[in-house]
C-alpha cells in the first residue's frame, strides 16, 4: 500500500515532496531524480529552490518527451525541464536526459533501449516524481500500456492531447500525436515513487490508481506493485478516496522514527 498523504493545498504538497528530495540529496549529492513535467510538479521545484541545496551534481531523467517538435521548441519537455527545473534548481543541464532526444524518424525505434541503458549506467533512478493524467497515465503510458513496458514510442490519447492543448495556444491539432515515454516497468524500477495529484479533475483517476484493481486500463494502478510509494493529494484530488479517513489518521499518528 502506498503511503497517502492528504495535504491542505498545492504548496503543502510541493513542500512535502521537496522534503523527500531534500533528504535524498543531502544523503547523496549525486542522486538520480526522475523528472516529470506538467503543472503538478511545479510546486515541488518552487519549494525545493528555497532549501539552500546544492543540486549541481544531481542527475535527472525525464519521464517522457513529444515526438516531432523541432529542437529547442519551448513546448518540448527538454525545454520545459530546462526552464522549470534545471534553471530553477541550479542543476547542470548536461546531467539531465530526456528520452528520444536528438532522434527522429526510424532512429526513434532505438530511443527506448538507449534511454534504458543510460538509466542503468547512472545506477537507476533513486526517486521518481510522477503526476497523473485524467486517463490514468503516468509518464505518457496511456490505458492499455503493458504493466511491464519499457521506454518506447507511444500514441497519445485524444483526452491527453486536449488536456495539453493549453500549452499549444489551445490548438489540439498542434499537440504531437506521438511521444517517447518511460514504460511502466521502467518507472517501477525507480527506488522510490512520489506521485502528486491536485484538483478535482484528478480525483477519479487517483482513486482508481490507489484503490482500484491493478490493470493496464488504469496505468497508474501499477504503483500498487511498488514497495515504496508516497502519494500526495490535495483535498479535491483526494475527494474520491474510500479510505481517506484512514490515510489521514495514519499520517497524523505516524511514528516519529518513520517521518
Ligand atoms: P498535469 O499533467 O500535471 O499538467 O496535470 C499530469 C500528467 O499528465 O501526467
Topology (SSEs and partners):
Layout (H helix, E strand, L loop, with lengths): L2 E5 L2 H18 L4 E4 L6 H7 L10 E4 L1 E3 L10 H13 L6 E2 L13 H11 L5 E4 L21 E4 L2 H7 L13 E4 L2 H5 L3 E6 L5 H9 L17 E6 L9 H9 L7
Helix pairs in contact: 1-2, 2-3
Bound molecules: 2-phosphoglycolic acid.
2-phosphoglycolic acid (PGA) binds next to loops.
Characterise this structure:
Helix 1 crosses helix 2 and helix 2 packs parallel to helix 3. The chain has one domain: Rossmann fold (3-Layer(aba) Sandwich), CATH 3.40.50.1360. Helix 7 links the parallel strand 9 and strand 10. The chain is globular and about 55 Å long. The protein has a 7-stranded parallel β-sheet. Strands 4-8-7 form a 3-stranded antiparallel β-sheet. The chain is an alpha/beta fold and 259 residues long. The two termini are 17 Å apart. The model has no long low-confidence stretch (mean pLDDT 97). It contains 8 helices and 10 strands. The site of 2-phosphoglycolic acid (PGA) has 7 residues, from loops. 2-phosphoglycolic acid binds next to loops.
Q: Which CATH class applies here?
A: Alpha Beta
- The radius of gyration over CA amounts to 17 Å
Summed over residues and divided by their number, the pLDDT gives a mean of 97
In DSSP terms, counting alpha (H) and pi (I) runs of 4 or more, how many helices?
8
Core attributes:
259 residues, 10 strands, Rossmann fold, 7-stranded parallel sheet, binds 2-phosphoglycolic acid, 3-stranded antiparallel sheet, alpha/beta, 8 helices
Amino acid at each position: 500500500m502506498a503511503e497517502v498523504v492528504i495535504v491542505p493545498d498545492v504548496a503543502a504538497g510541493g513542500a512535502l515532496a521537496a522534503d523527500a528530495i531534500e533528504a535524498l540529496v543531502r544523503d547523496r549529492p549525486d542522486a538520480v531524480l526522475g523528472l516529470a513535467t506538467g503543472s503538478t510538479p511545479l510546486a515541488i521545484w518552487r519549494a525545493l529552490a528555497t532549501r539552500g541545496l546544492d543540486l549541481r551534481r544531481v542527475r535527472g531523467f525525464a519521464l517522457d518527451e513529444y515526438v516531432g517538435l523541432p529542437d529547442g521548441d519551448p513546448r518540448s519537455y527538454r525545454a520545459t525541464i530546462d526552464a522549470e527545473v534545471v534553471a530553477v534548481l541550479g542543476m547542470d543541464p548536461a546531467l539531465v536526459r530526456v528520452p528520444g532526444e536528438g532522434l527522429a524518424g526510424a532512429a526513434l525505434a532505438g530511443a527506448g533501449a538507449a534511454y534504458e541503458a543510460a538509466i542503468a549506467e547512472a545506477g537507476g533512478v533513486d526517486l521518481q516524481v510522477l503526476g497523473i493524467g485524467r486517463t490514468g497515465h503516468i509518464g505518457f503510458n496511456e490505458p492499455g500500456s503493458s504493466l511491464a513496458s519499457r521506454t518506447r514510442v507511444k500514441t497519445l490519447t485524444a483526452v491527453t492531447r486536449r488536456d495539453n492543448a493549453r500549452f499549444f495556444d489551445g490548438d489540439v491539432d498542434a499537440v504531437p500525436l506521438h511521444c517517447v515515454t518511460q514504460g511502466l516497468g521502467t518507472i517501477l524500477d525507480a527506488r522510490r515513487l512520489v506521485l502528486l495529484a491536485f484538483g478535482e479533475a484528478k480525483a477519479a483517476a487517483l482513486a482508481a490508481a490507489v484503490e482500484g484493481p491493478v490493470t493496464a486500463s488504469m496505468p497508474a494502478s501499477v504503483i500498487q506493485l511498488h514497495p515504496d510509494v508516497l502519494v500526495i493529494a490535495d483535498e479535491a484530488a483526494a475527494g474520491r478516496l474510500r479510505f481517506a479517513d484512514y490515510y489521514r489518521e495514519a499520517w497524523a499518528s505516524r511514528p516519529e522514527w518513520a517521518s
